[in-house]
Amino acid sequence: MDRFEALSVLLAVVDAGSLSAGARRLGTPLATVSRKVADLEKHLGVPLVTRTRRGLALTEEGRAFVAASRRILGELDAAERQASGDFRALRGGLHVTAPIAFGERHLLPLALEFLKEQPDINLRLTLADRQLSLVDEHVDVALRIGHLTDSALIATRLGTVRRVICASPDYLARKGIPRQPEDLAQHDGISFQGFATAPQWRYRRDGVAFTIEPRAKLAVNTTEAAIQAALAGIGIVRVLSYQISEQLRSGALQELLTEFSPEPLPVNVIHGPADPLPPKVRCFLDWIGPRLRAQIAS
Question: Is 40 exposed, middle or buried (0-12, 13-18, 19+ CB in 10 A)?
């Protein structure tokens, strides 16, 4: 049994959620994948996964073994890249992730310029309004908006963005302008569903933070949908400043309750604690950092 191959098959199955999904991800017959997982369990003498109605669940032994397998394969990948010169040359694949709107408006144009400067680097840019695991998703660099919770990651602060509450002039003409956060209880709101962390309707008064939300008139699961609904006069929305900068400048949306705004959210670029850091990652960070910092400041 090729143990490294068996570990890779197991991780593919676990990440995909089932044997059949793992087989499709690997492009391998289901029978082969099932046999390799069974052979690995037989070799270890313990069950690693159990079948459920929703797919697969890890046993206690399986959870510990999968965590160790990820570390082992990660170290093997790093060793292979170092041996092949990936740690010495500015070449190879680079996986970067960022929130959708920020990535499209700010990161992508800079990343395209970076690729012109570094033709031997291949960039994979994943834009998603959820936080990808750097380890599980094999991400080299992530741009995060909000307070960080994983102390094992290395973060560089790029600036801050504001949380903005706003509505269209048409809506405000019909419903009136809220003058105090408490007035929101009488207003229609556009809320988010399906986000790991939805924008919070938080405010500050005399240094004390509190939360008040309007009535949920519409719930959506993308920022763009929420902005379009606000432009259509459906209700009040709370988004981040960079997401509606053009609409605020044009007057299509009007900012509200600015004197009660909460503290701005930090913007960080993060990466894993690799030592040494691959030159392609260091080069990307050095390129993107000052440029993004200048954009956020402006």
Answer: buried
